[in-house]
RNA sequence: GGCCCCGUAGCCAAGUGGUAAGGCGACGGUUUGCAAAACCGUUAUGCGGCGGUUCGAAUCCGCCCGGGGCCUCCA
């Protein structure tokens, strides 16, 4: 039974879909505000729901998944004004980058990628519903606000009480804006153009605007998620993901709006059944990050928030191929190493460690592939048990422990993942099986498993690949960022080296290996005289 | 000020009442022309500290120390 830590109740709950048939699951994630490149934190925020979704699919559910783009926002407008660009061109550029990075990170595409600006009418309709039910009001300056005092459950998600909030807010809020609102915590539903901050109001054509019953302007931030999740998934839906920072105010407000706007249909029930929030990935300060002032650095861990104002942001594209040095799967492996609710204090060496772990997996799978490729008794049509039995009795006996290890790995994997998506534990189960495969493989010094004994290795490797797939790790080592010509030349050099080694000209062979190593290719000599090169 | 979270080996990290997964690194050995990969062995009598509850505590409770997050538009 899958259990999920629900932010709403702050307890682990058994997962039960809304669908009475227990088959379909609906899922929504708050996507990025598209005004800049993606950093490692965004990668974590995308990979977390991807794991949730993949595991649900593994469990047999049919998942409908929506994740949005926030393409209207103060930061976007400011950037557009700054760069004197059309804000649509700006957001299109970063939406494009988002898709490229997601493809590289093997984040499965969502069923829909709604954009805020494509849903203005839906948002206006929600505001009208809120007026109808008495939750919205026109403030003194004409902006439309949500009255949080009108919703008795306000604060339930983030565990806050109105009075506490008001106490905590003192001295830190904009007095001018406070004066127009009924409660300090009231948030804007529709912002009039004329009330914009001076630097935005002067932005001219760079400031997006839409007509509404209350005047030209733009929607409040939280409104888009209420509108789009309702439109594409319905109310209520099963799982809502997002970064921990969004819990308050964004999700609290989104929830309040949705539940108030659709309260006729919803009654007293929750609009989202499971709220899943991933922790942050913070960056360690680098010496070259001159802007990182000492007071931001955690004396013990050296951790410091990844923030552009501090100049320590790690862009994903600078890390992964083709721009950066790492296989994108390394980034995913980094995320899988800790639970999604634990903070990660990132430092570059962590990527090297993740790369080493990934290597251990790929090495084992490749070695198995070579060891059993000539075993013609392996057939996809037969079960591993049938195949094991097809050999001689001794071969069967030898194969049983590995088959048992594969089954055990699958079980332990599921136990870990069932417990609130414990990817680190699940990875432990995979590594246990990897070790068992390597142990059994090491019995055969020639690197070839005798014919008739390959079935268990085949099954074990298949299990590893399947489980990796659930975690979103591609089961085959990627070729790297090099072009085809480079690969061909490397192959040619390997051939020359092979000839040299056959002729016992080891000095020449070693020089070729060292030279390739300097270019970033690690050479591995295989049984039988051949060699393989892999990009470091 | 309010609310919440964390502290497990050199490093990353799982484990929330039954006697410390897994990975990286390091050291020694096997294998190899030499390597690489892989295998074997070693690497936490102990889970920030001190008390308490319990037959039994990394896990529960209290206090202390250290760190982090959120509190109006940050994933």
In short, what is this structure?
By secondary structure, this protein is α/β, with parallel strands linked by helices. The protein is 45% helix and 13% strand. A 4-stranded parallel beta sheet has the order 4-3-9-10, with helices on both faces.
Question: Can you describe what's shown?
Answer:
With 536 residues, the protein is an alpha/beta fold. The protein has four domains: 3-137 and 148-158 and 223-278, HUPs (Rossmann fold), CATH 3.40.50.620; 283-347, no CATH class; 350-470, no CATH class; 484-535, no CATH class. Helices cover 45% and strands 13% of the residues. It has 18 helices and 15 strands. The chain has helices at residues 40-58, 74-83, 87-104, 120-132, 162-169, 175-180, 198-201, 223-233, 247-261, 263-266, 328-336, 349-372, 384-390, 393-418, 423-441, 454-470, 484-502, 506-518; strands at 3-6, 11-14, 24-29, 62-67, 136-138, 144-146, 187-192, 217-219, 237-243, 272-278, 281-284, 303-304, 344-346, 521-525, 531-535. It has a four-stranded parallel sheet, with helices on both faces. Helix 1 (40-58) links the parallel strand 3 and strand 4 (62-67). Helix 4 (120-132) crosses helix 8, helix 13 packs antiparallel against helix 14 and helix 14 packs parallel to helix 16 (454-470). The chain is elongated. The structure holds one RNA strand of 75 nucleotides.
Please supply descriptive tags for the structure shown above:
single chain, RNA-binding, alpha/beta, 4-stranded parallel β-sheet, Rossmann fold, 536 residues
